[in-house]
Specification:
- This protein has about 600 residues and is of the alpha+beta class.
- The protein contains eleven helices and 15 strands.
- The strands form four sheets. The chain has a six-stranded mixed β-sheet with strand order 11-12-10-9-7-13. Strands 2-1-5-4-3 form a five-stranded antiparallel β-sheet, sandwiched between helices. The chain has a two-stranded antiparallel ribbon with strand order 6-8.
- Helix 5 (about 205-255) packs parallel to helix 6 (about 270-330).
- The radius of gyration is 51 Å and the shape is rod-shaped.
- The two termini are about 35 Å apart.
- Residues about 110-115, about 130-145 and about 555-605 have low confidence and may be disordered.
Length: about 600
């Protein structure tokens, strides 16, 4: 039973939390709701204050009028009693009957239409003691102090000043005939007779005034509610007139940002909203024109690059043929001629590589690059890429350590993946200072990753976000063994994106650099995490023999740190690529690791 109650309570709390969350979201997203509720809240405060002030003022005026009328009626009643009791001695026998007769005459004479004070009850007391003491009687009793009327409702505090001959008033609460207690106004004053003075008390019930105040309160409440409803409706209509154009502008701006460059805001009238719409339309037209110009310039640039690359191939072929003839006859020449022929062949190779890269980058920019997807084992692609850079490994005496212990089958374009890895390995060997270069392959259910790490000069803070720029070099004056064109990493990044993958970089001065390639195992899947972390957590491996070696998972390449809470975030292509450096430790490319910030609305790594 207790578990069932606990479950019901949890469900109720969850339902309440969902309702509160929905209200918060609606409050944040609807300016019209915020304006209407704020207007109603402020109007409620104003109506309450005004209602209290009006009620207080009306109540004061009613009581003031009641007091004045009561005093006038009391003066009239005192004059009538003094005239009727001028020869009566209160100390003689038969006084009680006389007082009753005089009091009846007083109430009957005051029942005409000239009574502004309203209905009242009279009390006539002949005694000298406070009402309610053992020496006093009431209602026609036979004690020493005779009285007439409901003397019990007269407060004792009012008797003392009247006994001294003063006029006194007081508000009291009286109960009549079993009805609920009602407030009353009591006026007491002395009445002269042939003997000693009598005490006259007039009790004026405030029932009519109480009903009047209740009617006023209900009227004010109804009027306040009607006013609040009217203000809410007016504010809703006015806000809607302002919010509707803003919503239309937001919708048009979103469609414009999505690529519908012909979207424009409708223009109605000549007010401020119409001027805003006109300004927006002018801005959109200007942006559209500039985008078209940029597209034309980009297309012209790509066409120029492609045409120049194609046109240069013909003279390049002719020059290569002549260079090969000279190189073949170099044995019969002197050393200077041999060296010149060798340099000519080397530079022609580099020139041909540059032309090939320019043609490839132009095809990627034009969006005409095609994928030849096959299901392959990425480890075989890594081995082939390693063999293509063997000459660099041998020239620099660099140990190339391959950790290929985990199976890593995926649907990829092997030619493009091999080109990416070839560029990464060549860069790692160029900047590795003959220290070991580590390559590790890993895979999970959704992705396969290849990490290439060197222990050379590394990257300075901020350079990890620049390595993929075209023709950018960390140190242009530094001698390169591979004769790079400056387009290798740019082409590699486009190859990775073309296959729905990531290519990211991390580096630190004098601690080497890490490049990570992550590809989906199934073509077309969306990447969310990578099987390997980008930031390395282990030290450099021990000295290794130069050459290409397959290591069994002991090279220390970027192993996941224990209990780091590492996560990865997918960033769409339209977001700028985050850069990384020694201080920040964030990565370049479409993913950000081990950082607290991430783009809104994107899921966290389930790891």
């Amino acid at each position: 039973m207790a578990e069932r109650l606990a479950g019901l309570r949890r469900r109720a709390e969850l339902a309440l939390a969902e309702r509160v969350g929905a209200v918060r979201v609606l409050w944040r997203r609807s300016m019209q709701l915020r304006v209407v509720l704020s207007t109603v809240a402020m109007s409620t405060v104003v109506v309450l204050v005004l209602g209290l002030v009006l009620q207080t003022q009306i109540a004061d005026r009613l009581l003031e009028g009641k007091e004045q009328a009561a005093l006038v009626q009391a003066d009239i009643s005192r004059g009538n009693l003094e005239r009727d009791l001028a020869r009566v001695d209160p100390d003689r026998d038969g006084t009680q009957a006389t007082l009753d007769e005089a009091l009846d005459g007083l109430t009957s004479s005051g029942s005409g239409s000239d009574r502004d004070a309203g209905a009242f009850e009279a009390v006539l007391v002949a005694g000298t003691e406070a009402i309610g003491t053992p020496g006093a009687t009431g209602g026609g009793g036979s004690g020493t102090d005779p009285s007439s009327g409901p003397s019990s409702v007269v407060p004792p505090q009012l008797r003392a000043p009247v006994l001294k001959g003063f006029l006194a008033t007081k508000y009291v609460t009286v109960s009549q005939g079993g009805r609920p207690d009602v407030p009353a106004y009591v006026v007491g004053q002395p009445v002269r007779t042939a003997g000693r003075n009598l005490q006259l008390y007039l009790i004026f019930p405030l029932s009519a005034e109480q009903r009047t105040l209740a009617l006023i309160q209900s009227t004010l409440a109804l009027a306040g509610l009607a006013l609040l409803g009217l203000l809410a409706g007016i504010s809703s209509i006015v806000t809607r007139q302002v919010v509707r154009p803003v919503r239309q502008a937001a919708d048009v701006a979103e469609r414009f940002a999505d690529g519908h460059l012909d979207e424009r805001m409708p223009v109605y009238g000549d007010d401020e909203v119409a001027r805003l719409a006109e300004s927006y339309n002018e801005m959109a037209a200007s942006i559209q024109q500039q985008i078209h110009q940029l597209e034309e310039f980009g297309a012209l640039q790509r066409r120029f690059t492609s045409d120049v690359s194609h046109e240069l191939r013909t003279p390049l072929t002719t020059v290569r043929m002549a260079a090969e003839v000279l190189h073949a006859q170099a044995e019969d020449m002197d050393r200077i001629a041999q060296r010149s022929a060798q340099l000519l062949v080397d530079e022609l190779d580099r020139f041909e590589s540059l032309l090939g890269d320019l043609l490839e980058i132009s095809r990627l920019d034009a969006g005409v690059a095609e994928l030849a997807v096959e299901r392959v084992d990425v480890r075989d692609v890594v081995r082939r890429a390693g063999e293509t850079v063997r000459h660099l490994v041998d020239e620099t005496a660099t140990p190339l350590l391959l950790d290929l212990t985990e199976p890593a089958e995926a649907e990829v374009d092997p030619r493009r993946v091999e080109r990416i890895l070839r560029n990464l390995l060549a860069n790692a060997i160029d900047h590795g200072e003959s220290r070991p270069v580590e390559v590790r392959v890993a895979a999970d259910d959704h992705a396969v990753a290849v990490v290439v790490r060197d222990h050379g000069i590394g990257l300075k803070p901020g350079e990890a976000g620049l390595v993929f720029n075209r023709f950018w070099r960390a140190d242009p004056s530094r001698q390169r063994r591979s004769g790079g064109t400056g387009l290798g990493l740019a082409i590699s990044l486009e190859d990775a994106r073309l296959q729905g993958g990531w290519l990211q970089a991390w580096g630190e001065s004098d601690h080497g650099a890490v490049f990570r390639l992550t590809l989906p195992r199934t073509a077309g899947d969306l990447l969310r995490t990578s099987p390997l972390p980008l930031i390395p957590v282990s030290a450099a491996p021990a000295e290794a023999e130069p050459g290409i070696h397959e290591a069994a998972g002991t090279t220390g390449t970027a192993l996941p740190p224990p209990e780091t809470g590492e996560f990865a975030v997918v960033v769409p292509e339209e977001f700028p690529e985050p850069s990384s450096g020694a201080s920040s430790g964030s990565s370049s490319g479409p993913e950000t690791e081990r950082s607290g910030a991430r783009p809104p609305g994107l899921p966290e790594d389930p790891r």
